[in-house]
From TrEMBL:
Transmembrane segments: none
HAMAP family: KFase
Identification of the protein by name: Kynurenine formamidase
GO biological process: L-tryptophan catabolic process to kynurenine
Keyword Nucleus on entry: yes
SUPFAM superfamilies from the UniProt entry: alpha/beta-Hydrolases
PANTHER family: AB HYDROLASE SUPERFAMILY PROTEIN C4A8.06C, KYNURENINE FORMAMIDASE
Amino acid sequence: AGTQRARAGAQTSLHVPYGDGEGEKLDIYFPTDPSGTFPVLVYIHGGYWQCLSKDESGFAAPPLVSRGVAVVAVGYDTAPKGHMDAMVLQVRRSLAFLVERYSGIRGIYLCGHSAGAHLAAMVMSTDWTEYGVAPDIKGAVLVSGVYDLEPILHTYVNNALNMSREVAQRNSPMLCVTPAAPAAATCKVLVAVAQHDSPEFRRQSQEYGQALRAAGWSVSLLDLAGVDHFDIIEKLSEESYVLTQVREELPSSL
């Protein structure tokens, strides 16, 4: 319902292709007045890399677009069609596409939930020289994410993903933490976890947050009481944590 409201209210471009693949599409909710420059919140959906889609991702848009922030929901090929290497590549390419296509972008904020937080974290470890662009990532909100894929190898989640140990290792954000570049010093990372997330999720969020901090990133850990793995993202958007994160960075424009 939130997505339908968003689509009715904003200037939107749906299913914008950022590549040739079937799943390589973006939904872009532009701010009410998209003249000039605007910050962008890029939302990467969860679903254990095998369900959900960008089509359920518009719920975060209305409060943001009304305040001058564009919201982009990223589509990617979920398993079994998509492999982990390919999904990581797709979300990285989607960011490169946005930067090349829209000159008005002033600062990118990543937000991902669950598998989407994993993919957002992998975006943060990108060597952008390979892409010929330098996205100005100013913030990331990583919600109930998976940052070490090895424990998943032995669970039903891997049935569709079919990851080998090598694939799991090279796509584990914990093992890809890069020292914060000077630009990243201004990038604020919020690692959020739910009180009722499983102990494994809670452990991974804690350890990943600490690893980022040790590498010089600016990190806040948020442990949200009274929510579980699924309703934490609604809670965060309702209470505008995401909005606050963006707004703090952009007091003049919002």
